[in-house]
Design a protein that fits this description.
- The protein is α/β, with parallel strands linked by helices.
- It has two domains: 222 residues, no CATH class; 110 residues.
- Helices cover 52% and strands 10% of the residues.
- The protein has 13 helices and nine strands.
- Helix 6 packs antiparallel against helix 9.
- The radius of gyration is 41 Å and the shape is rod-shaped.
């Protein structure tokens, strides 16, 4: 099961962020440059510094409530300029229903890039040029516009210099027929108000939405990975059960009459006698025993390999078993008697014998064949 990498999903898309930055820089420089006299229309600034970011944030927020939603990131994804690897990544997101949250987060990052570009352009032009903020409208009067600006400035009520006064609004109303300006200083006093708009409606709003989107995306990602982990664990458990079933099927409880006992564990005769076995012969074997070393009658019979259950099977035993066929009997020893092995030891020998060609595990009928519910010791 392939899990979704959180670092890859939470990574910021440079293409989307760059798009937001370029849009913000283009609009802000175009509006802040003003006319040939350096006059900047305050209403235009409200459009690009507050209205566009607020509408974009609102559409992004609504996109979380719908199946697909509309935001800047999703619109940019419609442009056929993405690489095959990026398309595959987006396809993976759609398969796991993460694309909505991912696009929302990327849209907030693009919004932050837009806000950074507008703030950068504003500060640079404010510092190195002589900007005069005016406003002109055929339909709106100062009496109608002032309450709107006061409502906009509510979030920074504590900053007196950034509050729009009615007197300043009247003094900076512009007309194309006007040839001169009585108080040039008044036209520069709008900059704290414009700066506060940028901080609140461009930056702060996007930061809050980015935090919400990041939390939603991380939560959804954790939930999907938990589900995938559960499925993976279930599959592994099923495979383990299947393997154990095959291992158990590779065990026998009854031996044929013709076999000989290979005493690999070097048990004494009195201990072997407690097993009530009836082999044709008992032969001490080790890693150096070859088929030609055995008596002639034993070469045509299978062997019962008697081993110490508490000693893990090593490579030299596997090399020995490659030369013969038969059964393996792992036993424990208590007070001179050979007895069934512990559960953990038996499982280890079951897996080992299962991997050996031509061998099976022997467990006498009187012993518990599958001691899986109760462990000894």
């Amino acid at each position: 099961m392939q899990f979704i990498r959180a670092d890859k999903v939470l990574r910021t898309s440079k293409s989307i962020v760059l798009s937001g930055f370029c849009i913000g820089l283009f609009l802000s420089v175009g509006v802040l440059s003003g006319d040939p006299q350096g006059r900047v229309n305050l209403l235009y600034l409200l459009a690009i510094f507050m209205l566009i970011p607020a509408l974009g944030a609102g559409l992004s927020a609504l996109s979380l409530l719908s199946a697909s939603g509309l935001n800047l990131a999703r619109l940019l994804l419609l442009i056929p300029l993405w690489t095959p690897s990026q398309k595959q990544f987006l396809h993976t997101l759609r398969q796991h229903q993460l694309d909505k949250y991912w696009c929302f987060v990327q849209s907030q990052m693009a919004g932050l890039a837009y806000a950074f570009a507008t703030l950068l352009a504003f500060l640079v032009l404010l510092l190195f040029t002589d900007m005069h903020f005016v406003w002109r409208s055929t339909l709106l009067s100062a009496e109608q516009l002032h309450p709107v600006l006061v409502a906009i400035a509510t979030p920074w009520w504590f900053w007196e210099a950034a509050q729009p006064s009615y007197a300043l609004l009247q003094a900076t109303q512009d007309s194309r027929l006007a040839a001169d300006y009585a108080d040039a200083h008044a036209y520069a006093q709008w900059w704290p108000f414009v700066f506060a708009i940028l901080i609140v409606y461009s930056f702060s709003l996007r930061v809050i939405l980015w935090g919400v989107g990041r939390w939603c995306l991380s939560r959804q990602l954790r939930q999907i990975n938990r589900e995938q982990q559960f499925v993976s664990d279930e599959r592994d458990l099923t495979q383990t059960h299947d393997t154990l079933s095959e291992i158990h099927e590779n065990s026998v409880e009854i031996l044929p009459t013709d076999y000989w006992l290979a005493n690999w564990g070097r048990f004494d005769q009195s201990g072997i006698a407690t097993l009530s076995l009836q082999p044709k012969s008992v032969i001490q074997v080790n890693a150096h025993t070859q088929p030609e070393d055995l008596p002639a009658e034993c070469r045509t019979m299978k062997q019962l390999l008697l081993v110490k259950a508490w000693e893990p099977p090593l490579g030299e035993l596997a090399d020995y078993m490659n030369q013969f066929k038969g059964w393996v009997l792992p036993v424990d020893s208590k007070q001179g008697r050979l007895c069934p092995p512990k559960h953990a030891h038996l499982q280890e020998w079951q897996r080992f014998v299962y991997e050996q060609q031509g061998w099976a595990l022997y467990q006498p009928t009187s012993w518990s064949r599958y001691p899986t519910t109760k462990k000894e010791g």
